[in-house]
Amino acid sequence: MKIFISGGCKNGKSYYAQCLAKKGKQQDSPLYYIATMKGVDKEDEKRITRHRKERDGWGFTTIEQFHEIENILLKCDHNGSFLLDSLTALLFNEMFPTMDAIKLSAHEQIANGLHRIMSQLHNIVIVSDYIYGDAILFDPLTENYRKSLAVLDSVAAKSCDVVLEVVHTQVIVHKGKDVTGFEIP
For 36-90, how does the pLDDT look when each residue is reduced to its tens digit (9 = 90+)? Predict the structure, then answer.
């Protein structure tokens, strides 16, 4: 099953996604955590450490893939169960590859990579942050980032069987069947 999860930052999406990826795992198949976040400050490092601790003992093989997401296809058993966390971080990495460079069309490359992944993997949970739904206008670069993430979220949602939104630890089903059955702590 292909599942897309979106929602506000730091509200339990990753933990919920871990539960769903584990639940979708077939017996004797591998379980992969595709980590896209590069730690750039202490807050990022704390978040990465927390996510590692949360999945410790769950059986995940972590693959750090900060760029060119389609390259996971070269590193994994396609029959496995995957958790890609997150499109938000992946877009940041691709859009700002260095401190001096900005790649405004990064979402196009990521969208192509997502299409390749989604055509070859059967069990995947994709996480993203819903950061573009308010009416606040930001500077042009931030607006480009937000719009690019919205495009990627749309690509992922269209390719998935189930689309979920996590709001204050509550899960809303927007597409497909209800795959819930446990609560977010």
Answer: 999 888 988 888 898 888 888 999 999 999 999 999 999 999 999 999 999 999 9
Answer whether 128's CB lies under 8 Å from 149's CB: yes
Domain that holds residue 133: 2-175
Query: Using CA atoms, how far apart are residues 144 and 95, in angstroms rounded to an integer?
Result: 10
Kindly report the CATH number assigned to the domain that includes residue 111.
Answer: 3.40.50.300
Give the number of other Cβ atoms within 10 Å of residue 135's Cβ.
4
Strand pairing class (60-64; 31-35): parallel
With respect to residue 105, please indicate whether it lies within any of the assigned structural domains: yes
Short-list 178, 106, 183, 89, CA closest to 144: 106
Structure tokens at 3: 């599942």
> Is beta strand 170-175 parallel, antiparallel or unpaired with respect to 162-167?
antiparallel
Which amino acid appears at position 35 of this protein? A
3-state secondary structure of 165: strand
For residue 105, say if its preceding peptide bond is cis, omega within 30 degrees of 0. Answer: no
Provide, for the chain, the percentages of residues in helix, strand and coil under a 3-state DSSP scheme, each rounded to the nearest 5: 40, 20, 40
